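Box 3.1. Reading complex inputs
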Amino acid sequence: MARILLNDLSVDIPIFDVGTASLKKALLGRAIGGRFAQAGSIVTVNALKNLSFEAHVGDRIALVGDNGSGKSTLLRVLSSVYPPTVGTAIVEGHVSPMFDATLGMNMDATGLENIRMSGTIWGLTRAQIEGSMEDIADFTELGSYLEVPVRTYSNGMLLRLAFAIATVRDPEIMLIDEVIGVGDQKFFTKAFARLQGVIQRSQILVVASHADEILRVLCNKALWLEHGKLVKYGAFETVMAAYRGTELVTAEPDSEWSPPLGVAATN
Amino acid sequence: MAYAVGSTIAREFIDGFRFPQIWGMLGWDDIRQRYRRSLLGPFWITLSMGVFIVLLGVIYARLFKTDIAVYLPYLSVGLVTWGFIATTTTEGCRAFQEGERILKQIKLPYGVYILRVVWRNVIIFLHTIVIFIPVAVLFKVEPTWYMLLALPGMGLIYINQVWVTFVLAILCSRYRDIMPIVATSVQILMFATPIMYVRDSLGESAWIADINPLYHLIELVRAPLLGQAPAILSWEVGIATAVVGTAMALALLVRTSRRIVFWV
């Protein structure tokens, strides 16, 4: 059974300027009494502060907050990329992170080669990749373009391919970081349905996005972060009302995308 | 992938070996990338090394007034093996930077990024060591059973290169100065190590070669392929550096694994 348990979690991220990355300067600093070591000081960002929450099977959590509030950092803690500086993060279950849909893609390789490469990095076995080949080919509708270098694809085609590969897996915990973006309308309908299918097969979902309409369809809970701190966590509409209530300007994304007709909310 | 950063440090090292499908694929793709749309593809690796060996061999055999039938086999194995060590060491500094996109998205054991670099250089080694075959045939190198010892010799070089790459990748991601220092040191070592000359030609200064672990590691592959057993001392040095070096790499990993992702 998948489970997420964060207890008093804080993450400090060091930012390096060129000054401190130099071994020479570090050594010089020590030799001359430490003065130079201060010249290139390391700036630390408290990305997350004392975060505690639990998630269990069936939770579909929308991660909301302004830019820089710590959403991406939290997602990376959940996918074990960032270690906690203080506190604990227990994440049980197979995690499928979807942060960069084009992960592992090689522009000079063909569509088919990229499916194999990306699939391997995502953690799929050869059997799984070969088995899904037809499904991916159908979904992307790229046809013989799959045998041509990905370099020649348009942005929309690239997204179709990336999306197809990224949604092959059956995750237990699914993490999404604002992946849904550019694309044509027809694809969006298809992509959304496919994404929903994958999400429904997952046990826990955490998705960060500014697009409220998407979140409303996908999620039943929401977690509001501000400056790295947890402001509110609970039922979707309750938290969203509080979150949007404090906004002076509605933070609408640039696209005029709205969920396809007939797609029901999963609340 | 249920993997926590730094949960068990040795896992970052050992578990790297458990994903050959990932580092094997990435390493091989690195090579295909370099030779895409070229006429000869990876065969260029063999060709360019071959030309280099022949030119160097002919010129230096004359300079040193040595018999080319003895010199060229010696030089070819030495250069090819050195090529593996030198390139893996310098490229290894950037192992994490090369994998930056993946490293910051998905948790894979750090060993994966290291083994990718080592593996692609093993592929290059395999493409270049084949040059020795026509050389050995042409200059009538006597085949003996000792030649099989080159395999464990190469294995020991591989094991040593893994910990070296690990240490350098970690240090270089934090201190960006280290890479040029490594590159220069490798160039200097190429002349300090008997590759283009034999150890005995150093005369009284032969100790320079004897204290150099790289000399011993190269001997573990070169001596067998030239038909002799390597000195026991070379085995001892090779194994000792592997053990001590791996311990060092693990110790460094314990101290740094939780921060590497922020350094890269």
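In summary: Residues 81 and 179 of chain A are 18 Å apart (CA to CA).
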